[in-house]
Each structure stands twice: as C-alpha cells, then as structure tokens.
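Possible regression after last week's pipeline update?

I re-ran a chain I had predicted before the update to compare outputs. Posting the input and the new output here so someone can diff against the archived version. Not blocking, just want to make sure nothing changed silently.
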Amino acid sequence: MNNPTNYFRLGALALLWGSSFLLIKLALTALAPTQIALVRIVLGALVLLALCAVRGLQVSRDRTLWRHVAVAALFASALPWVLFGIGEQTVDSGLTGVLNATTPLWTVLFGLLVSREALPPARIGGLLLGFLGVLLIFAPWQGTSLLSWGVLACLGAAVSYGIGYVYIGRNLTGGHGLPPLVLATMQMIAATGYAVVALPLDGLRPVHWDLLALVSAAVLGVFGTGIAFALNYRIISDEGATTASTVAYLMPIVSVLLGWLLLGEELGLRILLGMAVVLVGVLLTRRSPSPGTTTAEEEKMPEDDRTEVRTSTEELPPIEPPKGWARLHLALMRGSQIYAELATNHPMK
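New output (post-update):
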C-alpha cells in the first residue's frame, strides 16, 4: 500500500463491517428489525453530516439527483438493513455474514443485464463458481436444508445490495461533481425517510430497555455505518476502490469468528467450504483490469505516447454493435467491475 497506515484502517473496517451482524443479533433482544434499521440510519446520517460540515461540504439540491439517491437508498441501505434484522431473528450472525458475502456475485449478475463489455473466461468461471458455493451452503439435496424464511431474508438483503450497487454505478457515479462522502450522506438522509415509513410494520412495539442491546444498536449506527464509511473513504482516496474492496473477503471471516467466540455459534464444514468457494468465485470475477486503467504496456510509455494511443483509438470508425454471445460477454464484463469499483464508494454493511 502507498500508506502503511491503511493496513490498520482496512483491518478496522473489516472488524466494523464484519461485526455488524453480531451487533444486529444483540440489538434484536431490545429492538424490532425496523427499529434497529432506523437507529442505525439516523446515527450514521448524523456522523456523515458532521464529517461533511468539518470538510465544508454541502448536500446537493438537485431534484433529479435526489430521485436517483432515493432509489439507491432503498436498495443499498434501508431495505437490506431491515431484511438482515428480520433474518437474524432466526439465523445465526455468522451465517448471515456468509450470505452477505454473495453480494458481489449478485452485483455481477444484475450488471450483466444492463452492461455491454466483454468478460474473460476467468470471470465467467468465477460467477458460476460463486453460485456453486451458494448451492453448497444451502444443500437442497439434504433433508435438513438451510432454506428458511430467515435465510431467504438475509439472501434477499444481498440481492438488494446487488441491485443498489448496479443502480449507483449507472446513475450516481461521475458527472455530478460531488465527492462520495456527500453522495453517501444524501443516501443516508433518504434512507431515513424509508426507515420512518417502514417503522409501523413492527417498530411500534415497546422497546425493551436492555443496556447491551441498545449500546449495540448505537455502535452499529455511529461506528458500523458512519465511522466505517469515513475509513473506507480514506482508503479509497489513498489506495483506490479495488484495494478498499478487499474488505469483502475479510468480513465473513470476522462475522463467523465473532459469532463463534461471543455467541457460541457453530458453522458446519459444508457451510465453511461453501463460504470459501464463494470468496474464490468473487476473487475470480475481479481478475481483469478496470476500464480506463493503465495497462502494463502503457505504463512503459511516456505520457505523450499514451495520449496518442488513446486518441488514435477514439478516432477509429464506429464498430457495429455486438450480437448474440458477444453481447452476453460484454454485459458480464461491465457487471463484474461494478462492485469493486463503485460499490465501495458507499456505506455497505
């Protein structure tokens, strides 16, 4: 890394986001899922607003931008956080972290529906391998399959993240002149509205005043959402989004270890093996360089020569749009890049 301190920031980020599932499990002893989501979002929004104030940043008043932010807030914040709370009422925190690790795969899958860039065979194999790991975790061929409403809610949260990140990549990245910190703050403000609307679903019941549970919810909002994003923002600024996205490999490990150490949860060998297969699949989907990055050959050229190469490419006559399998390959490439490059610009977990 360019800055050795970022190793510690990356570790802290993995701990904060990986422990979020433990904190949700603890908070459920006092709060309903929608109450936890509301507390988390409001506290996270306050922290991000404070960070914007310190840096002299202001949220936009562009109504069109706010409409895009509102969609992102629904699928990348409010909905998954409510679903995780619902799921963890019956699902262990460690397994929830494992299911959350499928988020990059869903991002790739939904990305292929809206994108048109070529995908190398390694990334196609990574996508298929990742979903094979999901199948291994659920083991539908066994009579004691893990499939339940709680598990489906957690998996639905990961799917919602995938939809949200693809939407963010297409509508909220670039072209607005706003730093990610401001966009994330706007996202949390919009998510607050959704959390308030969802509160009557199960959040009107009395709160059980359990100190550990309430502190867990507060820590989840202040540190697991607000401070964690600040750390992520700093890593992206210093090292780039691809390096920051490596936290996705550490989070399920943290969630499994914390659930085992603090809650006595146990995951069978099949689930741990499925998690490993999922992570290998995620790794393979990130193998190729991102669009716009400098290739190894270009790095050896003087800057003027690089500009000439890129300019000459831009001056080529238009090429006929691809068809059939070529279009599928183009779509998969774009989808596989969205998670590592774009999703890490926003608070995820």
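Follow-up from reviewer: compared with the archived run. Residues 289-316, 338-349 have pLDDT under 50 and may be disordered. Marking as no regression found.
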